[in-house]
Design brief:
Layout lengths: L8 E7 L12 H7 L2 H5 L4 E8 L16 H18 L5 E6 L5 H11 L4 E6 L20 H5 L21 E6 L4 H10 L2 E4 H7 L1 H12 L6 E7 L21 H13 L4 E7 L8 H15 L1
Parallel strand pairs: 1-2, 1-3, 3-8, 4-5, 4-7, 5-6, 7-8
Helix pairs in contact: 3-4, 7-8, 8-9
The structure holds manganese (II) ion (MN).
The site of manganese (II) ion has 5 residues, from loops.
């Protein structure tokens, strides 16, 4: 079987922190570029293509719309969506380095276009990211990107960059352990497939992934994107993240996860790594970002 590892790997930085209130997460692409992660991934085939910056903004303390800093979020997402359409080639592997998870709505919808609307998505996260502007307690867009990409925003959709809606049957989530009450009601009503940490511990990652692949890719023909929020992992491994929740995934879980991903070969097409905030904690987090890259690309 051909592996995704034979492809050229394009790395895009999404230097965005506008989806949540903590500064620092927007600097991660520049730091990882200085750290030369492309050499660690593949000294020959991996290269940075660009770093997309967010617009100037001042965090809206008083929420002026159901989405805090609505216009700046819209602008940042459009820039990332456009950059992916510009740089992503369906024959390459596309690695997107955030930034907070607000970029997830534009990465999955843009990559869905790149792959002829044949993309399935595995979303690793402690949170549901399925709030709508009307249910979100905080108004922070990084808690809403999956709801947006799945078309859960009712009129108005607030902003739209020509994205395609991802079908709900093509999405699964792993690592969930902190859902807001109304968010959980939406996820259950709409039928989002998600596995909580309790389920991962009870039935094991091997079985979780078996069920996920069977559900989101029953005929073995979808392209697979992984949107990896490092808060899906345990905060002892990634303390440098904005909204940590105890009791997350470990590297043994990730190895088993990657065993399933490897088995789909070249249909593993893209990965987001988001919510790495090295200004909250640097040493352990940076070391484990590199560990994560090793487990993914070697
Ligand atoms: Mn997230």
């Amino acid at each position: 079987m051909v592996s995704y590892l034979t492809k050229n790997i394009k790395i895009l930085g999404s230097a965005v922190s506008i989806g949540q209130p903590k500064k620092g997460v927007e600097h991660t692409p520049a730091v990882l570029k200085i750290e030369k992660i492309e050499k660690l991934i593949d000294p020959v085939k991996a290269e940075w293509v660009d770093i997309v910056n967010q617009p100037q903004y001042k965090i809206e303390r008083l929420r002026q719309s159901p989405i805090r800093n609505l216009l700046e979020n819209a602008k940042a997402n459009k820039r990332i969506h456009d950059a992916i359409l510009k740089y992503a080639d369906p024959n390459d592997f596309f690695l997107n380095i955030g930034g907070d998870h607000s970029i997830g709505s534009s990465t999955v919808t843009a990559l869905n276009r790149v792959h002829n609307e044949n993309l399935a998505v595995i979303w690793i996260d402690a949170h549901g990211d399925c709030n709508t502007p009307l249910t979100s307690p905080s108004g922070n867009y990084h808690g809403m990107p999956l709801a947006h990409a799945l078309g859960f925003f009712k009129e108005p959709v607030y902003f739209d960059w020509g994205q395609t809606i991802i079908p709900i049957t093509s999405v699964a989530m792993i690592g969930i352990r902190d859902l807001d009450i109304e968010e959980k009601i939406i996820m259950d009503k709409e039928g989002v497939l998600y596995f909580t940490m309790n389920q991962v511990r009870n039935i094991g990652m091997d079985k979780v992934m078996g069920e996920i692949m069977h559900k989101i890719d029953p005929y073995g023909e979808k392209m697979i994107h992984v949107s990896l929020d490092v808060d899906g992992f345990d905060p002892t491994l990634f303390p440098g993240t904005g909204t940590p929740v105890p009791g997350g995934l470990n590297f043994n879980d990730y190895k088993i996860f990657m065993k399933h991903i490897r088995s789909i070969g070249e249909r593993f097409v893209s990965l987001d790594i988001v919510e790495v905030n090295l200004e909250i904690e640097r040493n352990i987090t940076l070391m484990n970002v590199k560990e994560l890259l090793k487990h993914t690309f070697h």
